[in-house]
Amino acid sequence: MFSWLNIILHWLGRGDAGARGERLAADFLQREHGFAILVRNWRNPRDRREELDLVCRDGDALVFVEVKTRSSAALVTGYHAVSRRKKRVLLRAGAAYLRQLRPPPRTFRLDIVEVTLPVDGGPPEIRHFANIPLFPKFHGTGRM
User: Fold this and answer.
1) What are the chain's domains?
2) pTM exceeds 0.90
3) Based on the number of CB atoms within 10 Å of its own CB, is 127 exposed (0-12), middle (13-18) or buried (19 or more)?
């Protein structure tokens, strides 16, 4: 009974968990991979529903990062929670972000960072998935 109660209480506080997961993901990407964090929680000015959790620089590449924070009791992993529908939203948001840049970056990609928060309060587990297929091919130019 108490495990279900912990899960429900954890789920009710998931807004805080999501913000914590984004902070942990940003710190992890900086510390472990040398990413520069450019923007957090960027929203498309034309459609505020379209959000990019993190926009980073990895060397010469611009990286859009979707952060998924989950409880260790979750049935679906953070990676698998990025559905086809969510990828379409990320594609639109990424394209809107790229349109505002002058000059546009030569390369860009989508990464997913999965942050798992243990129900028992132990240390989080962070997994980084780089270069997730999202952007359509553009005749070999790599640009939108």
Assistant:
1) 2-129 (3.40.1350.10)
2) no
3) middle
